[in-house]
Design goal:
By secondary structure, the protein is α/β, with parallel strands linked by helices. It contains 11 helices and 8 strands. It starts with a strand and ends in an 8-residue tail after the last helix.
């Protein structure tokens, strides 16, 4: 399995396809395995790079508390060790937050930036939501954790229409999630508590796309609007009828938006 030692941490990654590098950053409960359905469309034109953050998936688990700055530095180290001069960066939720941290420090390494269902600061509601998630995780009970966390991830329509699929995923939580996973999840949640880069966003000067979802209750549209208004010449697209997990609820729309931006952001359109 492909691992790299980055800043003394063993980081798991996968690569597919050829072309300009497209590095994808996971949401907080995701891993490289979460992207299996998206590998083919994203790797047809780009060298797709999937990675697990510290405390995610197959990457190294730690015991100390950290901030998202650690994840941004791990991302920097991975990009350097893979020999990439510049990359396209796609971050989902937690991954989008790390992407913002990375862009503010290393935007010379970014061709384009895509932020899906992302916030630039952890407000009081998100802090309390995080505390509830931590409390549920510390029960080490899959059913309790699932029914505390997952209802805030999906839209009402998706939840009601896919309840059998969700119940199967709940059983997987119970079977697969270990004490080590829950402890790592707690550290990931804590690492996002201090996020607040809103007033620095104007410093980002790379082609940027913000993707929001109509029914996202975890990071509502106004949080993406904060980012859109502060990053010069950024683009903003809303996926209708989706909640926070827009890539799962509306995969065709999600892929079309991402690839559409990557294939056109260099163009200037003069409509006459």
């Amino acid at each position: 399995m492909p691992y790299l030692s980055v800043n003394d941490k063993n980081i798991y990654y996968e690569m597919y396809g050829e072309g300009e590098p497209l590095v994808v950053l996971n949401g907080i409960m995701m891993s490289t395995a979460s992207w299996q359905a998206f590998i083919e469309p994203f790797s047809k034109q780009y060298k797709l790079v999937l990675m697990d953050f510290v405390d995610q998936g197959k990457s190294e688990k730690v015991e100390e508390i950290y901030t998202q700055d650690l994840q941004a530095e791990v991302l920097k180290g991975l990009i350097d060790k893979l020999g990439f001069t510049k990359v396209h960066l796609l971050g989902i939720s937690y991954g989008g937050e790390v992407a913002l941290k990375f862009a503010l420090k290393y935007q010379d390494k970014i061709n384009s930036l895509i932020l899906s269902n992302t916030t630039s600061y952890t407000n009081e509601l998100l802090k309390d939501l995080g505390k509830a998630w931590i409390k549920a995780a510390k029960t080490y009970d899959g059913e309790t954790f699932f029914r505390t966390v997952i209802p805030s991830v999906y839209s009402i329509e998706f939840y009601d229409n896919n309840i059998e699929w969700l119940r199967k995923r709940e059983k997987l939580f119970i079977q697969l999630f270990t004490k080590e996973w829950y402890d790592a999840f707690v550290r990931l949640v804590i690492s996002a508590e201090s996020l607040n880069v809103t007033e620095q966003l104007h410093e980002i000067n790379v082609p940027t796309l913000i993707i929001g979802s109509e029914y996202d209750s975890t990071t509502p549209l106004r949080l993406q609007e904060h980012i859109y208004k502060r990053i010069k010449d950024s683009k903003f697209v809303v996926i209708k009828g989706a909640g926070h997990a827009s890539m799962y609820e509306k995969p065709y729309e999600f892929v079309s938006i991402v690839l559409g931006f990557l294939n056109t952001y260099r163009y200037s359109f003069n409509i006459v």
